[in-house]
């Protein structure tokens, strides 16, 4: 059975709202005249919980559209690439990290052509180096520091 | 005469060679990225934001305005050539624009779009110059309670024209507001939702969220769709409109301009409402309504003019009230904030050169758009044929470098990746992520005004109905909510979108 988008969205809203309420439980609410830092998040999260409950309730009566399939391959490869970039850019430099992003991104697609990907990576790294490193002189490190 | 001297000041700023160069670069880059299928103005502006970080505020804003117009026009180009609207406001352009292109009149359709946009832009620039200072003066009377109600109205109104479920859209706004509360509270210095991470003390940068959702998330969504065959239009002959074409363009474009200018000032999807209404108006008053949808030139001229003049007058609530009327405008507020500028009634008084420079560069941006695009139409059309498999790695890499360069913090790239996941999940759940951005930008402002209003009223919530301006906005909000809840009208709204999207 596939779940309806309304049901999952509703559950997501409820859990996010509840999480915000619980995590922010100790933030002082203040008085009406001097609202504390907890007042507004509490207001907003309660609203979110309420909307989530409405969605859940509605999905029980009118299921609505079902969730279409999740494409795991692009999801995993693309995110691995960008996360690795974040982890490596300062240590290994932008050249290696950028090549990783491009190669992993292309692996997300089944149609992988090694020569083309190599040329693309080379072109993009030169472009990044020219625009961001030389052109805008952002403090990027090109190569690993030994 | 005051207006004229102000405009003169603006043009002296905008015509400085360096600013002219940035405006040109902005239009060029904005069109180049915006013309790529699947990249609408929000994505285009998010991707190009980092390029403006290192500039002076004035040049940065001028360049951003250029990017904005370039991206908007790029969206119309894809709407006409490949039936792929870059954003909701160019949906209408696909109706007759794509039909014109299929009949071999792509050049004429593109030229019509460019010329009617330019005409609309010219008139709208003067409307802004005359109307904005008056509105800003009016806005100075606004108290915190009035701002609170205005922003609540703006958020709710923005929901009307979002696609899909209203409850989900409001939920997305609330999620955005919650995200906006992250960081150290300015009044109590209490860290809220920072999870012990020192970098979260300043909250999450909105560009990180925007690039994560619209750059990384959309890429994953597109890859999931697989390669779909697109029908490309190959014939771009006959670019310049003949005199009798021009005659057919002028009147619809003028009607579209004024309708768009009026609707653009309203918070909440100004350009979308404008292009839809202008199209409906032309169809209603036409002698041959049956030719609409089959390549009627009025069906391109009017909505394109309306769209452009509305997106220009949308700067009025942005610059005078600090109220973004659309996600794109929310991005502009965010960009202003990055340069330490807070949009609002004080902006005109305190930074006249910036305000009027922006107004003048809007017109220059429009001019550059025509100058650049009419000769380059063939080239942009070729760019459309860049295979997606070469395009998306470039988008991802630029997003990574861009996010990292915001404050040279590698953690931001990882946070952006998380928002990429969030963006993908949201599309799967049929939740539009754009309202989240609106909520994120407006959330902290709403909290601050709520706090101040209650402080002044000693905690009495009656202040929101006692002040006339605030009361008006709350009544308007109630009317909007009522409209949303009336099933008949809601069904009608869904029908409008279903018809035009199909």
Word description of this protein:
The complex is a heterodimer of chains A (146) and B (502). With 146 residues, chain A is mainly α. Chain A has two domains: 5-61; 72-135, no CATH class. Chain A contains five helices and no strands. The N and C termini of chain A lie far apart (54 Å). The mean pLDDT of chain A is 88. Chain B has 502 residues and is mainly alpha-helical. Chain B has one domain. Helices cover 76% and strands 1% of the residues of chain B. Chain B contains 21 helices and two strands. Chain B has helices spanning 2-14, 17-34, 41-53, 57-82, 91-139, 144-160, 166-180, 206-225, 243-265, 270-285, 298-313, 315-321, 327-338, 345-350, 352-383, 388-407, 410-428, 434-456, 463-466, 468-485, 487-501, and strands spanning 183-184, 191-192. Chain B has a two-stranded antiparallel ribbon with strand order 1-2. In chain B, strand 1 (183-184) and strand 2 form a beta hairpin. In chain B, helix 9 (243-265) packs parallel to helix 11. Chain B is globular and about 65 Å long. Chain A: Keywords: Membrane, Transmembrane, Transmembrane helix. Chain A: Residues 8-139 form the DUF1468 domain. Chain A: This is Tripartite tricarboxylate transporter TctB family protein. Chain A: It holds the Pfam family TctB. Chain A: It comes from Rhodoplanes tepidamans. Chain B: Residues 20-438 form the DUF112 domain.
Summarize the structure.
The complex is a heterodimer of chains A (146) and B (502). With 146 residues, chain A is mainly α.
């Amino acid at each position: 059975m596939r779940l309806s988008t309304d049901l999952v969205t509703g559950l997501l809203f409820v859990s996010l709202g509840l999480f915000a309420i619980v995590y922010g439980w100790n933030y002082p609410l203040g008085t009406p005249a001097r609202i504390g830092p907890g007042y507004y998040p509490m207001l907003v999260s309660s609203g979110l919980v309420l909307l989530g409950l409405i969605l859940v309730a509605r999905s029980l009566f009118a299921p609505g559209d079902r969730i279409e399939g999740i494409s795991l391959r692009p999801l995993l490869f693309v995110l691995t690439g960008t996360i690795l970039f974040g982890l490596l850019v300062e240590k290994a430099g932008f050249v290696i990290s950028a090549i990783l992003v491009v190669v992993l991104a292309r692996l997300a697609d089944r149609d992988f052509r090694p020569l083309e990907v190599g040329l693309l990576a080379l072109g993009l790294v030169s472009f990044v180096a020219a625009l961001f490193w030389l052109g805008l002189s952002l403090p990027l490190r090109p190569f690993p520091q030994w | 005469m005051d207006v004229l001297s102000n405009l003169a000041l603006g043009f002296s700023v905008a015509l400085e060679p360096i600013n002219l160069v940035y405006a040109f670069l902005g239009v060029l880059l904005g069109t180049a990225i915006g013309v790529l299928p699947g990249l609408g103005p929000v994505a285009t502006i998010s991707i190009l934001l980092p390029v403006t970080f290192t500039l002076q505020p004035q040049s940065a804003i001028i360049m951003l305005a250029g990017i904005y117009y370039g991206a908007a026009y790029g969206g119309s180009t894809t709407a006409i050539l490949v039936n792929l609207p870059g954003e909701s406001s160019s949906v209408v352009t696909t109706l007759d624009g794509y039909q014109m292109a299929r009949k071999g009149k792509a050049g004429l359709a593109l030229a019509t779009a460019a010329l009617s946009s330019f005409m609309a832009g010219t008139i709208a620039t003067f409307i802004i110059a005359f109307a904005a200072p008056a509105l800003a003066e009016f806005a100075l009377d606004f108290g915190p309670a009035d701002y609170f109600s205005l922003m609540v109205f703006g958020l709710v109104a923005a929901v009307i024209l979002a696609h899909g479920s209203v409850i989900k859209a409001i939920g997305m706004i609330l999620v955005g507001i919650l995200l906006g509360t992250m960081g150290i509270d300015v009044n109590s210095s209490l860290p809220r939702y920072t999870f012990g991470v020192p970098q979260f003390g300043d909250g999450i940068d909105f560009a990180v969220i925007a690039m994560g959702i619209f750059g990384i998330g959309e890429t994953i969504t597109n890859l999931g769709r697989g390669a779909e065959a697109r029908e490309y239009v190959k014939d771009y002959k006959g670019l310049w409109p003949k005199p009798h074409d021009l005659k057919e363009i002028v009147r619809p474009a003028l009607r579209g301009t004024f309708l768009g200018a009026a609707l653009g000032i309203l918070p909440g999807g100004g350009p979308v409402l404008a292009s839809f209404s202008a199209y409906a108006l032309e169809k209603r008053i036409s002698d041959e309504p049956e030719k609409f949808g089959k390549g009627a030139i009025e069906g391109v001229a009017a909505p394109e003019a309306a769209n452009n003049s509305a997106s220009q007058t949308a700067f009025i609530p942005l610059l005078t009230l600090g109220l973004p009327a659309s996600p794109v405008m929310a991005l502009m507020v965010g960009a202003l904030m990055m340069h330490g500028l807070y949009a609002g009634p004080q902006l005109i008084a305190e930074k006249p050169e910036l305000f009027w420079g922006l107004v003048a560069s809007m017109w220059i941006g429009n001019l550059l758009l025509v100058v650049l695009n009419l000769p380059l139409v063939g080239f942009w059309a070729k760019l459309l044929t860049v295979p997606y498999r070469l395009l998306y790695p470039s988008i991802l890499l630029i997003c990574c470098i861009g996010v990292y360069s915001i404050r040279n913090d590698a953690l931001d790239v990882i946070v952006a990746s998380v928002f990429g996941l969030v963006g993908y999940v949201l599309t799967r759940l049929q939740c539009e992520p754009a309202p989240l951005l609106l909520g994120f930008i407006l959330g902290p402002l709403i909290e601050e005004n709520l706090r101040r209003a209650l402080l002044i009223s000693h905690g009495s919530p009656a202040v929101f109905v006692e002040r006339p301006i605030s009361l008006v906005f709350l009544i308007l909000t109630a009317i909007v909510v009522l409209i949303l809840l009336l099933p008949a009208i809601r069904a009608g709204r869904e029908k409008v979108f279903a018809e035009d999207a199909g």
